[in-house]
Amino acid sequence: MLRELFGTCSVHRVALVEGEAPIAYGLIRFDRAYLKARKRLFPNSRSFVLGGCVVSLEDRKAAVRYCPRCREAERAWNEANPGRK
Ligand SMILES: [Zn+2]
Question: E strand or H helix at 61, and its extent?
Answer without folding.
Answer: strand 61-66
